[in-house]
Amino acid sequence: MTNEEKEKIIELRKLGIGYRSIATAMDLSRDSVRNFCKSRGLDGFGQDYGKPKPEKVIREHCKNCGKRINQKKLKGRPKTYCSIECKRDWEHKNPIIYQHGCYYCGTEFENKSKSGNYCCRRCYIRDRFWRDEDIEDIIKHLKERQPLQNVPIWIQDLMAGKEGQEPDEDSKEYY
Known about the structure:
Layout: H1 3-14, H2 19-26, H3 30-39, H4 84-93, E1 98-101, E2 108-111, H5 121-129, H6 131-143, H7 153-159
Antiparallel strand pairs: 1-2
Helix pairs in contact: 2-3
């Protein structure tokens, strides 16, 4: 690669043009253009070089205890906490709570997990292992014409004829 080509690559890169476009225009390989740009600190997205870079905000104090963080010049994400204990303590004090609906009984419940399926262990066990007993109990109540209480969602859907249909995006049906 000649000095003229190098200067042209730097000029085009500062205009916000990507590696592939520069390589095609100058009849070079994309990898050689990319490697040259990386060696000169011009890596990343091409459109970012036409705009001024926003200044990075580096946290100097721990998010939990406020102690000064020993920041070293390393690649990657800057530290937010002074130690793993501080991180765990902060997460314990400030939990993220997610809203869920139980797959068995349909009750709404809160959980720290992003993917909570059942409100309690009893609902999990009944949904996983007691399906035949639930069906027998429903049939017995229907024969005796007694009102049904706490009917599982999957039985309600089955009685409504939703078993063979495609589930909606928002519904949580697992059969």
